[in-house]
Amino acid sequence: MTWLWAALTPHPPVLVPEVGQGREKEAGATLQGMRSLVEALSSLHAHAVPDWLLLLSPHAPYVPGALFVSSAARIQGNLARFGAPKAQLRAETPQKALRALAALLKRGGIPAAFGATENISQDHGTLVPLLLLRASFPEAELPPILIVNPSGLSPEQALRLGELLGEEPWQDRPALLASGDLSHRLKEDGPYGFNSAGPVFDKALVEALKQGRANLLLELPASVREKAAECGLRPALTLLGLCGGPLRIFSYEGPFGVGYCTALWQAEGGN
Known about the structure:
Layout: E1 5-9, H1 17-20, H2 28-45, E2 52-56, E3 67-70, E4 74-79, E5 84-92, H3 95-108, E6 112-115, H4 124-133, E7 145-149, H5 155-167, E8 174-179, H6 197-211, H7 215-218, H8 222-228, H9 233-243, E9 248-253, E10 260-266
Parallel strand pairs: 1-8, 2-7, 2-8, 3-6
Antiparallel strand pairs: 1-10, 3-7, 4-5, 9-10
Helix pairs in contact: 5-9, 6-8
């Protein structure tokens, strides 16, 4: 079977109303982008629901030189560290898919490290997108979720990972959610101040998604990628490798000095 859909979302906790307490409205374009994504997925899920979800989070455990893969039987967590303990979720890990992914990584030469991290309260890269998107699933019930962190891979390995995922003849129907913010250096009052590499990086990433051309990111000078202070490059490259074509962009903005982009690819004429 083929992948049902693949998407890119940002993950600032402020977007969750229990955390933002009204400040989330400052990211109006992103909120609308997420609403549009929920609407598109809700329409799709009325006919077909993913058997499991592969979630790429740059805030899951980081392993230098390898892809981190969560092998916990289940996950659970909340946003208590952001003042919202009731913003919580839990889900099972698809064990059959975990074994299939491990075999695929070995065959494809993608270095991997496995760890059983059940409590994901430190991983807002997983929690925020799932909290915002679970309304798109019937009765707001999340499917089994397999978390990986591609941050330890090279950009080329992250792209190859996506290609391998797309080539694999999965026996079920998965979906992929790439969680990642773009540059953190878009404004002087942003988390890392302003650097001209920030807007350059964000423009290239959004254009790469629009055109379905990963080379627009791979061709960026390493200095631009580094100075942009991003966390979404590798998730985006894996996403592009899987899709093999353009995505629909719902929104892009940088209201707090950090770039947020929402985008969607659908397997059956959803672009």
